[in-house]
Design goal:
Layout: E1 3-6, E2 10-14, E3 19-24, H1 30-45, E4 53-59, E5 62-68, H2 75-81, H3 86-101, H4 112-121, H5 127-138, E6 145-147, E7 156-159, E8 162-165, E9 172-174, H6 176-189, H7 197-214, H8 219-224, H9 226-233, H10 241-251
Helix pairs in contact: 3-7, 4-5, 4-9, 5-9, 6-7, 6-9, 9-10
Length: about 260
C-alpha cells in the first residue's frame, strides 16, 4: 500500500480509491485505536466534518483504522505552499473549531484531568506556578463544550470545497477557552520556522481576532487559561530549547498571547 502520511504514533496508507488505513506503530496498544475510532464515529454521527471510520483491522502486531478517503493537502501544507490566502485559511480553521464546540458533549469525558496530569509532570516549573496552574485546571468551568483536544493545521485536510478534521484521539469536553489556548500556543510556538513569517503572522492574527470577537466582553476567560495550557505544554517530550524558553515566558506572564 502507498504511504500517504506519517507521524510519531501512526502512518496513513492508501487502501484503494475510497479508503485509507491509519496504521498505528508497533507498541501502540489496540485500545488507542479503539478509542480513536469511537471518537471518530461519535464526531461523524454529530455531522461534524470527519472522514467516516469504517472498521478496525489488525496487521500482525499493529492495529489500524480504515477510514473513508479524503484526499487533499493539510491546512499546514497549504500555508507552507502559499496556495491560499492565510486570512481565508484562518477563517476556515476558526469556523471548523467553532463547529466542533457547538456539538453536544454529554457523552464525552472531561479533558481537564489529563491537563492537570501534564501540569504536575512539567519539568523545570516551580511549585508555586504549578499550584496556580492546577487551581485553574481543576476548577469547575462555567462553560463546557465538545473539544477536539488537538486542533491545529496539521489535523485539518482541505477536501473538496471545504475541509475535514482528523486525529480525534483526544476528543472530550472542556471549557472552550482551554481548547483555543491549546491551539493558539501551538500556532505560535510549534513548527513556526516551517512557514514563512508573514504567512504565519497573518494566519495567527486572523485566528486571534476571530477568537477575540467570539469572546467579546469576556476575553478575561481566554487570558485565564493561558497559564495552565502553557505549563501543560512544557510537559511535552521533545520540546526544542527555543520553544521551552518561549512557553516559560508565557507561563510567567512575561508574554501575553491575547494582547
Amino acid at each position: 500500500m502507498q504511504r500517504l502520511a506519517g507521524g510519531a504514533s501512526a502512518e496513513v496508507l492508501a487502501v484503494d480509491a475510497n479508503r485509507v488505513l491509519k496504521l498505528f506503530r508497533h507498541g501502540v496498544p489496540r485500545a488507542v485505536a479503539q478509542r480513536e475510532a469511537a471518537h471518530a464515529r461519535w464526531a461523524h454521527a454529530q455531522g461534524l466534518p470527519v472522514p467516516k471510520p469504517l472498521e478496525i483491522v489488525q496487521q500482525e502486531t499493529r492495529t489500524g483504522i480504515v477510514f473513508e478517503r479524503c484526499d487533499g493537502p493539510t491546512l499546514f501544507e497549504a500555508l507552507r505552499s502559499g496556495t491560499r490566502a492565510p486570512a481565508d485559511l484562518a477563517t476556515l480553521f476558526f469556523e471548523l473549531q467553532q463547529q466542533i464546540h457547538r456539538a453536544p458533549c454529554e457523552l464525552l469525558l472531561p479533558l481537564q484531568p489529563a491537563l492537570a496530569h501534564r501540569i504536575a509532570a512539567a519539568p523545570g516549573v516551580g511549585d508555586d506556578l504549578k499550584t496556580r496552574a492546577l487551581a485553574i485546571a481543576q476548577a469547575r468551568s462555567e462553560r463546557s463544550v465538545a473539544c477536539h483536544g488537538d486542533f491545529h493545521p496539521q489535523n485539518v485536510i482541505l477536501w473538496q470545497s471545504s475541509a475535514v478534521v482528523v486525529d480525534w484521539l483526544d476528543l472530550g469536553w472542556a471549557d472552550p477557552a482551554l481548547d483555543v489556548n491549546r491551539t493558539l500556543l501551538f500556532l505560535l510556538y510549534a513548527h513556526s520556522q516551517m512557514v514563512a513569517t508573514d504567512v504565519r503572522d497573518a494566519f495567527v492574527q486572523t485566528y486571534r481576532r476571530l477568537c477575540r470577537q467570539a469572546w467579546s466582553g469576556r476575553t478575561h476567560e481566554l487570558a485565564r487559561w493561558v497559564l495552565p495550557v502553557a505549563v501543560a505544554r512544557l510537559a511535552r517530550p521533545g520540546l526544542e530549547a527555543v520553544q521551552r524558553a518561549a512557553l516559560t515566558r508565557v507561563a510567567h506572564g512575561e508574554v501575553t498571547p491575547w494582547e
